[in-house]
């Protein structure tokens, strides 16, 4: 026991200073509409420490209660690490896009994981259900594209997406699939007004990637370090409900302009000179032809009358 003590003591100090905490999970929360006051939680967060689970639940519940959304989306990526947001950032393009378009967004690189006995998402879904009297719930898992049922009505819903545990190998293909499913589900929503909470409900089985040499790991730094996000700013003012109604009447034909037209107008003559020339030549030619035929017919009739008169005299 004496030898074991001297081995465990320095080992504990090494683990305490290790930059990667296997006892935490990352989390991203955002709302399409502005939720005033939530940025204080982001400002007070120290990324070098682990956010207690109770504090995270408090933030998530305030995000849900602050603003009614047409859809509350809960995404569980078991085994997700903060390293994945750095290594596979380009692959998670759809997720980053939706976060960038939101009016309120929060990131926590290290959050205390929930216990296996209590499902965190079940608690948050229950909170959303009670807060906004939600009756419709969608669970997407397994074959995600088939289990998600598209809807077109405006009743609020909770949508829970559960992915398989992040594999130890082929992680790139895994996150390509996750980003594809997130884009598919959000793209099918009848309204852009949604709230998302994305995290891992379980710790990774092992340390998959080493974070040494990657510097300070932050989730989507280009999005969250935008100066406009330092204060509450509504980025999505438009309201679909306010845009309903008839379109403004726009006639296809505005009518004839009240202008005096003249054949002797210099601009008219210059623009249509060749057409007028052709009309005049055709008209003169037609009149000349008709006069020629008329005179010819008259001469023929006169000649016949003379012949008939001679025959009668004989």
TrEMBL record:
Where does it localize? Endoplasmic reticulum membrane
Q: What is its main location?
A: endoplasmic reticulum
Picking any one GO biological process from the record gives: fungal-type cell wall biogenesis
Task: Give the record's keywords alphabetically.
Answer: Cell wall biogenesis/degradation, Endoplasmic reticulum, Membrane, Signal, Transmembrane, Transmembrane helix
Q: How does this protein sit in the membrane?
A: Single-pass type I membrane protein
Residues passing through the membrane, by range: 273-295
- The secretion signal range is 1-16
A single Gene Ontology CC annotation of this entry is:
endoplasmic reticulum membrane
Q: Which family does the UniProt entry place this protein in? A: Belongs to the BIG1 family.
Spell out the protein name for this chain: Protein BIG1
Which organism is this entry from? Lachancea nothofagi CBS 11611
Q: What is the lineage of its organism?
A: Eukaryota, Fungi, Dikarya, Ascomycota, Saccharomycotina
């Amino acid at each position: 026991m004496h030898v074991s003590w001297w081995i465990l003591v320095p080992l504990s100090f090494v683990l305490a200073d290790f930059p990667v905490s296997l006892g935490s999970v990352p989390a991203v929360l955002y709302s399409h509409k502005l939720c005033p006051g939530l940025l204080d939680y982001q400002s007070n967060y120290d990324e070098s420490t682990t956010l207690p689970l109770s504090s995270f639940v408090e933030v998530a519940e305030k995000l849900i209660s602050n603003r009614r959304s047409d859809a509350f989306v809960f995404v569980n990526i078991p085994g997700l690490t903060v390293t994945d947001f750095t290594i596979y950032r380009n692959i998670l393009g759809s997720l980053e896009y939706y976060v960038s378009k939101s009016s309120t967004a929060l990131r926590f690189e290290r959050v205390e994981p929930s216990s296996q006995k209590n499902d965190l998402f079940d608690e948050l879904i229950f909170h959303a259900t009670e807060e906004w009297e939600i009756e419709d719930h969608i669970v997407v898992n397994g074959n995600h594209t088939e289990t998600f049922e598209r809807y077109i009505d405006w009743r609020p819903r909770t949508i829970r997406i559960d992915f398989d545990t992040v594999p130890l190998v082929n992680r790139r293909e895994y996150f390509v699939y996750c980003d594809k499913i997130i884009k598919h589900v959000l793209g099918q929503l009848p309204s852009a007004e949604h709230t998302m909470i994305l995290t891992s409900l379980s710790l990774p089985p092992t340390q998959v990637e080493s974070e040494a040499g990657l510097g300070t790991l932050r989730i989507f730094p280009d999005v969250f370090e935008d100066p406009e996000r330092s204060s509450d700013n509504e980025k999505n003012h438009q309201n679909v409900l306010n845009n309903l109604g008839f379109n403004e009447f726009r006639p296809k034909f505005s009518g004839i302009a009240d202008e005096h037209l003249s054949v002797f107008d210099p601009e008219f003559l210059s623009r249509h000179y060749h057409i007028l020339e052709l009309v005049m030549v055709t008209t003169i030619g037609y009149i000349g032809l008709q006069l020629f035929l008329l005179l010819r017919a008259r001469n023929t009739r006169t000649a016949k009358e003379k012949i008939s008169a001679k025959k009668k005299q004989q």
